[in-house]
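pinging the channel bc i need a second pair of eyes. not urgent but kinda urgent?? the chain im working w is below, pasted from the shared doc
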Amino acid sequence: MKHEGKTIGMIGLGNKESGYDAADKEAVENLSVAIVEALSNKRAQEALKESEERYRDLVEKAGIAILIDDEEGNIKYANKKAAELYGCSLKEMKKQSIKSLVHPDDFKMVIKFHKSRVQGKRAPSSYVFRGIKKDGSIRYLELDATQNKKGESIIGTRTYIRDVTARRKAEEQIKASLREKDVLLQEVHHRVKNNMQIISSLFNLQSGRIKDKQAFEIFKSSQNRVRSMALIHERLYQSKDLARVDFAEYSQSLTTRLFSSYGINTNVIKFYINIKDVFLDINTAIPCGLIINELVSNSLKHAFPADKNGEIKIAMHPLNKDEMELIVSDNGVGLPREVDFRKTESLGLHLVNLLAEDQLHGDIKLDRTKGTSFHINLRLSNEEKTNPYC
């Protein structure tokens, strides 16, 4: 007796005195075929039964809830974990449907995705919804679903569900904590800005009583420095990103205020900002802002005598992944050749050198080719290196 080319047994006949004719041989062959088929079917059934038992054991002992439903969302099968998840018995689970297991506010979403899936349309394979237990309590559940087919026909879905309530609560606590932090930082920036504005107002009040022109200029310069720092905090307070300043917007506002402070006609002296998508943290933005304040103020006071027309330009661009270059230039009369900007008695230029070298850990160069052009190389912080641009 052979099955799939392999001998699986033998049939022996004996004790027939007259011998065996063709009919006997045919009967033996038919009997052999019948026995082989019976043995093969039995073995196949045993293998199928063994496979089903292994599968059922695996599904029942799985650490994840498993549901099988029909096209209407009625539960046809649930494992023990699913019953535990919803606080029901296995018998009770088979009487449930999607509607009874999903929070009313999420039902439309879940049934929409379910219908799309059984209709062969696109639907998210994984998402989070709120489930309702037998006792009425609500759990956040993460679902992974796939089509359940019989041949080529879709007869429902197979769904795997994990309880993510603890994870969801932790995420909500983190979000709440971040919101509190944002509110606190906004309040800090707001108060710092207000305090600096008060200081600026005090400078303004005091300068009104000063008759000496040099002393008046000192007060005015100090007032502009305070305003440049206050503007940083104002930008951070108004921004969605409380950690970084949009330096293009900041430079525009700062320069506009300086022109207003010195009563400059923008039709006579124009300014241009060439900074695109540069975002700096407060530790870099404040010294850069003070540098711009000092250099633009110097240009407005000295570069264009007798209402001479001119331009002031502010630019910032990357040199490499670790450094950026800030350029403040004008096409005015230029800094006198005999003046060494590193050793000048000017407080403003002395401040620019200190900020560039000590706080920004960079260096500063002067180009006198066309007017005055200061080039300041500055090192980026680790956070700015990661993402200085949007």
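so The chain has a mean pLDDT of 82. and The first strand starts at residue 2 and ends at 3. — does that match what u expected or am i reading it wrong
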